[in-house]
């Protein structure tokens, strides 16, 4: 009994340390974004700006087309998340309910595909997109993001489908529902937390992705926000720190907002399922 309070205190201390570790980059980025050039060049940095200013944000918008790049990122990330979830949901249902050689092969493909590095995939992807004339286009980038997110989405949703009692689907079949009707009316509503989590993963991965967008997009009007941020670094590698921090701070907000909204959906669905159970 004496060790329980100490163990609990240790757990809270570890959790607090982990939260501080995660929050430090974002807090420091926000602090840098609101500092004037004199404070950024100071020898003694401070956590809280002594003379906060919005000049870095104005300069960032004046120097680079941030809104257009943000729209490109939002479009590609949303489309990739939607397509990945739409394709992965029925495939995950088949993989979870069919225990044959094909399902085992698909599961093995999901595991093996995660081991391939970006550099190994970019050349064949570039050649494929070139043959179908999708290089330097947002649809081509969406296709790449879907292919990249699909294995992990399948792995996530397969686990959620297996957690759904098969008796519910059998009851629907007794009532005359077919496979598709059972999937859409019985299984998918119960998969709402898993679908939300998978969509969040696909969206955030596409929103923050840099390497594929850098290689596949050459037209400035097509570039996404992570690629555009590199323009704040000069030819000699010297970063325009204030505007760069301001633009990077704005770039992190949409993913945090999406996470907050979907997290509420996930929590609400889990609580609703527990109450109904």
Report on this model:
The longest helix has 36 residues, at 241-276. The chain has helices at residues 3-33, 37-40, 55-63, 66-97, 101-113, 118-131, 138-163, 166-174, 179-190, 192-208, 211-216, 225-229, 241-276. It is built from 13 helices and no strands. The two termini are 34 Å apart. Helix content is 77%, strand content 0%. By secondary structure, it is mainly alpha-helical. Helix 4 packs across helix 10.
Shape: globular
Percent strand equals under 5%
Average pLDDT works out at: 81
Give the uncertain stretches in residue-range form.
268-277
Backbone CA Rg: 23 Å
SS-based class: mainly alpha
Number of helices: 13
Taken in chain order, the helices and strands follow as HHHHHHHHHHHHH
Span between N and C termini? 34 Å
Instruction: Describe the sheet with the most strands.
Output: none
How is the quaternary structure best described? Answer: single chain
Helix fraction, binned, reads over 70%
Compute the number of strand runs: 0
What key attributes describe this structure?
single chain; 277 residues; mainly alpha; 13 helices; globular
Chain-wise SSE layout:
Layout: H1 3-33, H2 37-40, H3 55-63, H4 66-97, H5 101-113, H6 118-131, H7 138-163, H8 166-174, H9 179-190, H10 192-208, H11 211-216, H12 225-229, H13 241-276
Helix pairs in contact: 1-13, 3-13, 4-7, 4-10, 5-7, 7-10, 8-9, 10-13
């Amino acid at each position: 009994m004496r060790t329980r309070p100490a163990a609990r205190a240790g757990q809270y201390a570890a959790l607090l340390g982990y939260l501080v570790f995660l929050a430090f980059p974002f807090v420091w980025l926000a602090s840098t974004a609101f500092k004037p050039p004199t404070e950024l060049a100071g020898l003694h940095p401070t956590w809280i700006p002594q003379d906060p200013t919005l000049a870095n944000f104005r300069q960032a918008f004046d120097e680079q087309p941030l809104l257009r790049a943000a729209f490109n990122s939002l479009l590609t990330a949303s489309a990739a998340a939607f397509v990945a979830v739409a394709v992965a949901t029925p495939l995950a249902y088949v993989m979870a309910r069919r225990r044959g050689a094909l399902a085992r092969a698909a599961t093995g493909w999901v595991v093996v595909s995660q081991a391939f590095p970006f550099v190994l995939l970019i050349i064949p992807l570039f050649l494929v997109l070139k043959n179908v004339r999708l290089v330097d286009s947002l649809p081509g980038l969406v296709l790449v993001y879907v292919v990249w997110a699909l294995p992990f989405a399948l792995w996530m949703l397969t686990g959620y489908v297996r957690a759904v009692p098969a008796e519910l689907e059998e009851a629907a079949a007794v009532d005359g529902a077919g496979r598709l009707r059972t999937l859409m009316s019985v299984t998918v509503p119960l998969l709402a937390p898993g679908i939300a989590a998978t969509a969040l993963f696909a969206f955030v991965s596409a929103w923050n992705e840099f390497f594929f967008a850098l290689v596949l997009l050459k037209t400035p009007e097509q570039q996404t926000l992570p690629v555009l941020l590199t323009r704040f670094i000069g030819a000699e590698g010297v970063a325009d720190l204030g505007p760069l921090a301001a633009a990077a701070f704005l770039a992190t907000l949409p993913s945090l907002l999406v996470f907050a909204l979907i997290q509420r959906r996930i929590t609400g669905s889990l609580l609703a399922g527990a109450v109904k159970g």
